[in-house]
Amino acid sequence: MPGRSSSNSGSTGFISFSGVESALSSLKNFQSCISSGMDTASSVALDLVETQTEVSSEYSMDRAMVEFAMMDRELNHYIKAVQSTINHKPNLSLSSPAVTGTTHKAVK
């Protein structure tokens, strides 16, 4: 099964999040690209205003900024959800005996 580790010191049911954490790291790096895009769109919009350049409505800087803001917000929500899942600690009191280390003897 994807994400499962079969050789982890005898632990059964251990889920490895190393691939997820790697992808999460890449997404965090992508946040800087979104930020750079927002800065560039702001700079272009300011240049257009300063030079009083007429631009057709299909090249709306407002729309570009809104799209960057939406991408940033959605990416932040996704990253927080994945981090929350990775950091979730199971309730050990409900774990199976193999996980807690207790054993039960058969009743004769």
From TrEMBL:
The gene is LOC109688132. It comes from the Eukaryota. This is E3 SUMO-protein ligase NSE2-like.
